[in-house]
Amino acid sequence: AQSVSQHNHHVILSEAASLELGCNYSYGGTVNLFWYVQYPGQHLQLLLKYFSGDPLVKGIKGFEAEFIKSKFSFNLRKPSVQWSDTAEYFCAASNSGTYKYIFGTGTRLKVLA
Amino acid sequence: DTGVSQDPRHKITKRGQNVTFRCDPISEHNRLYWYRQTLGQGPEFLTYFQNEAQLEKSRLLSDRFSAERPKGSFSTLEIQRTEQGDSAMYLCASSGWKQGAPVKSTNEKLFFGSGTQLSVL
After folding, report:
1. How many CB atoms are closer than 10 A to CB B23?
2. Helix, strand or coil, per DSSP, at residue A88
3. Of B64, B58, B63, B38, which Cα lies nearest the Cα of B119?
């Protein structure tokens, strides 16, 4: 069955620390991968996505993610977090050419000022 | 782009009652999704439509749940004979573009509404 796993449920960091959130997927075939973010009191919104090509993708607000096919992973990174990055982060996936998106359980990030 | 609208924002009901939620997607979008989210979990896929057609429905979804999108615009999600376990945030999202509009699949992303918070007492 298709699934997306996020192993870090809660992460607490100080400002300027580096961030890496794990995401693993279980899909057959070619996969599209996404990270969505939900800031407090706001809608879920897209942070970045991978469809094909360069496995290192850059998104908004200095976030990036690396697709490693051999590890079935799509980890999210940011070199230096800010207090405003406090949010919940969700990894999602779909099979290429389809539009059913499966989400992970999310990681709640708190950045201390 | 007026965003995805959901109504109501909150619904409190007694166990056994029927409830109906409405979602108005972004007007240019041809795909509409329903997800359910509980505390500490990610959005759980329920169903999605492409225009009027319901293309997929989660196998985990009870027969008490039904969704419609009769004219390919707004959608309704009905839960019959509600149970306490149905308490959750019900999210609607839309994506894609109406037929004829030029778009690349790599532009695909979901636009979410604010959700309807259901509490079953």
Report:
1. 26
2. strand
3. B38
Burial of A40 (0-12, 13-18, 19+ CB in 10 A): exposed
Name every chain A residue with its beta carbon within 8 A of the beta carbon of B31.
99
- State the Cα–Cα distance between residues B75 and B89, nearest whole angstrom: 16
pLDDT for residue B102:
56
* Beta carbons within 8 Å of B94's beta carbon, 6+ residues apart: B4, B25, B26, B29, B31, B32, B33, B110, B111
- A107 CB within 8 Å of a chain B CB: no
> Chain B: residue nearest A93 by CA?
B109
- Closest Cα partner for B36 from B95, B89, B94? B89
Measured in degrees and rounded to the nearest 5, phi and psi for residue B71 equal -120, 15
Burial zone of A107 (CB within 10 Å; 0-12 exposed, 13-18 middle, 19+ buried): buried
pLDDT digits (tens, 9 = 90+) for B53-65: 999 999 878 899 9
